[in-house]
Amino acid sequence: MTDIRNYVAEQPLAVRTFFALVETTAGLVGASERYWSANGTNGARIRILVEIAKAGGAILPSELAGRIGVTKANVSVLLTPLEELGYIHSTSHPEDGRKRRIVLSPEGERILSDLLPGNRATIEGRMKGLEEAEMKQLFALLRKLQRNEE
């Protein structure tokens, strides 16, 4: 039987760094989520709207699922409240009528234009503990870790 103390006591630098990254990320995400909650929404909904906007305002559900890392079945569940709120609607694909596209509505665009600036200011405020050169270095290191995952 493995002695659990080997995994909860002093850890190697790689493990300590990983958990510091997780804890820091959780704090930053928490600040962002508090902002969204105070404005009557949540980060998951906004992320979907942002991905649709990044795709030019319309996207296939399967493509959206891939971008946000969920299954096609789960993306349907996530889209329902956005459609009920009037932030999105679906239309036929212009080249293949059998396919449906998810389209950002004017109300969805308004929500993004109203709320994204405040959220981005919240994030920037939390990142002010780092100087610009440090942020650039951290960004480069995080990209390096991401490439290592591929």
From TrEMBL:
InterPro entries assigned: HTH_MarR-typ, MarR/SlyA-like, Tscrpt_reg_MarR-type_CS, WH-like_DNA-bd_sf, WH_DNA-bd_sf
Domain HTH marR-type: 14-147
Keyword field: DNA-binding, Transcription, Transcription regulation
Cross-referenced Pfam families: MarR_2
SMART domains from the UniProt entry: HTH_MARR (SM00347)
SUPFAM superfamilies attached to this UniProt entry: Winged helix' DNA-binding domain (SSF46785)
Superkingdom classification of source: Bacteria
The protein, known as: MarR family transcriptional regulator
